[in-house]
Amino acid sequence: MIKINFSIFLFTALLAFNSNAAFDIKARTVILQDYLSGEILYEKDSDKSIYPASMTKIMTAIIAFDLIKSGDLSLDEKFIVSENAWRLSSAGYSSMFIMVGDEVSVENLLKGIIVASGNDACVALAEGIAGTEDEFAIMMTSKAKEIGMENTNFANASGINNTENVSTVRDIMIMSNYLIKHFPDEYKYFSEKEFTWDRTGGDPIRQGNRNPLLYKNLGADGIKTGYLAVERYSLASSIKRNGRRLIAVGSGFDSKKDRSRESSKLLTWGITNFDVIEIAKSNKPIENLEVWLGKKSTVNAYVKTDIYKTIPKARKKYLKVTASYKGPIQAPILKDDILGTLKVTYKNELIKEYDLLAFEDVKKLNVFSRLLKSINFLIWGDV
User: Fold this and answer.
1) N or C terminus: which one in the chain shows less Cβ crowding within 10 Å?
2) Which of the four CATH numbers 2.60.410.10, 3.40.50.920, 2.20.28.10, 2.60.120.10 does domain 2-11+280-380 have?
3) Residue 297 catalytic?
4) Which one of the listed residues 37, 44, 46, 57 is annotated catalytic?
């Protein structure tokens, strides 16, 4: 077995630790994820059931984004506001302030949902897409299961006042990750700090984004606040700084001030205490492996997934990445043949391994060339 040490001395720690003893966030349930590696940096009762409140609206937007992506919906398409939707603009809830009979574009409804947190806009969008809000909620829950939100049930499009609208901060994190990964252009709506609705029968209404982190110098670009009397304050948030992205979700903050302060504290802690290292990019050659009796003397190898590791900054010398294979590898070789494994180790203990695949075909030499090469090997030991 030949082991090739890459000239990369990468570093990590086993991030299955929970540092609650040394660091605590004042909320009932919290989670922090490194977006690129997917590793959890901090969690506290992250599978505890919560009422997601207006964080529900992230999924409401995802359903619309999915339909836009498939061509079944457009931003310019307009929906007529029902009395059912209008009622939520006049009952003390967060509102976009749409009126019965208004024809509102999907883009304006999305901005009303994402920026102004309008419950009325949620109902109007849900009814326009699915006919009823109940049918739309079924679509939401189905999508949640599809993307791995195993402990979530959506009962409406807004997240208000329904005991069957339940989730966990882990599931909200999964949903937020999916949003950012699959809809990078649409995600930009979540960073907009204000939205002006040119309402019917009155002056335009300008509302600011309720996410307090957007107004801090953190690099925050989303995602969504929430509040219910029974759940108290919640926030799904994300920051991007120097190529790194973190996603945090917390619920059960005692006050708006706590929500802002503790979320900032958590995200700052993640940025300042950890680094993320790129080990490999999917579908790109990462190493040349030796070939025996092939028309090429080496073959490029690759992995099918992006590989990142998040590491505590104080532990930067324990991780190695090695390519392990039985070689030289005899031709012929077909693209995507498994050639060996890429191993990630920490303190000489295996953390994870990935299949190393052939990036290209390598044909076998003809009979004469193979014979000549074999004779050279017998005489000179040169493959």
Assistant:
1) N
2) 2.60.410.10
3) no
4) 57
